[in-house]
Amino acid sequence: MIVRDDYSLRTHNTFGIDVKCRRFVEFENDHEAMEVAEMLRESTLPFLIIGEGSNLLLTRDFDGIVVRSGIKGYTFETGDRMVCGSGEVWDDMVATSIEAGYYGMENLSLIPGDVGASAVQNIGAYGVEAKDLILCVWAIEIETGKTCILDHDVCEYGYRQSRFKHDWKNKFLITRVSYGLSRTFQPHLDYGNIRQELQRKGITSPSAQQLRDTIIEIRNAKLPDPKIEGNAGSFFMNPVVSREQYERLAALYEGMPHYRVDDEHEKIPAGWMIDQCGWKGKSLGRAGVHDRQALVLVNRGGATGAEIVALSDAIRRDVKERFGVDIYPEVNII
Q1: Where do the catalytic residues lie (predicted)?
Q2: Catalytic residue among 197, 266, 307, 330
Q3: Catalytic residue among 26, 68, 88, 160
Q4: What is the model's pLDDT at position 202?
């Protein structure tokens, strides 16, 4: 187990915000996770459970305990299951699954973060979400120290949502996640510009690796490297609106992009609305909007968490004023 006091979290959040916590703890196996659960029960300090910090915006020092999983390892089991330690890097597991001939994760290539966070956030991209793959989640219940196996259905997954973000917040230390994959590759190509990029390469029937490579290229072309310019990827969730509201807006904005959710709802890209409001490439102090993807807020250098929140608030006001649509941060703001 790793324990550090008065510890800087700068390397544990991809915005690169330099704030400290009173204590940092990383568990590396189930036994240590149980010990950490006991520590949290006995302590009067608040605590924060993090992953790689790729979906985290820290606005101040945290006067409490920050907990992170360092559990590694993965296995392929009967029924085309892949069970991964919660501390594994998500994208490493995508690559591993393809190399082993297990498919389903390809569209989620290059999403930052770790395996545990995939179960909390219900990460998603290019028409696929983690909930489409998750079978169950192994966790230690903090209140009792007992091991729990939480089936997919009880996690109540929705768009970028799960019970881990709401009534289960700070109730579990996730240790492993089980994904249901397939030995037969069935590509999902009809979201975003995947098919267009494949056609540009002259690929009509991509392999899983070709699809992964293409998605990585698409993401690299429009998303900044957090090692160079601090960011947390997509800062806002794409809003889901009623079909009636969508049709009113579509009549005003010809060619407005949208994605069908169901018979009564449509999803409108938040990045498109932010771009229409003129924010792409603009800055507010040391915080800015990425010049190739308006959905991404960036640390131009030395920005505080409060500066990034101020930028977020200004963008949300403008989108609401112009489109009558509320957009909400996907990032966890502390």
Answers
A1: 160, 234, 330
A2: 330
A3: 160
A4: 94
Q: Report the domain count for the chain.
A: 2
Q: Which of 197, 234, 266, 307 is catalytic?
A: 234
CATH number for the domain that contains residue 24 = 3.30.43.10
The answer to whether residue 184 sits within a structural domain is no
Model confidence, pTM: 0.87
**Residue 303: predicted pLDDT:** 95
Residue 113 inside a domain? The answer is no
Sign of the CA dihedral with 295 first, then 298, 300, and 306 last: positive
- Among candidate residues 22, 41, 69, the one where a domain is terminated: 69
Q: What confidence tens digit (pLDDT) does each residue in 100-127 have?
A: 999 999 999 999 899 999 999 999 999 9
Q: Average pLDDT over the chain, rounded to whole?
A: 95
Closest CA to 319 of 287, 272, 261: 272
Is 330 an annotated catalytic residue?
yes
Domain boundary at 69, 89, 120, which?
69
Per the CB < 8 A criterion, the answer to whether 97 and 89 are in contact is no
| Nearest-angstrom CA–CA distance, 203 and 196 | 10
Determine the structural domain holding residue 312 and report its residue range.
Answer: 230-333
Q: Average pLDDT, stretch 149-172?
A: 95
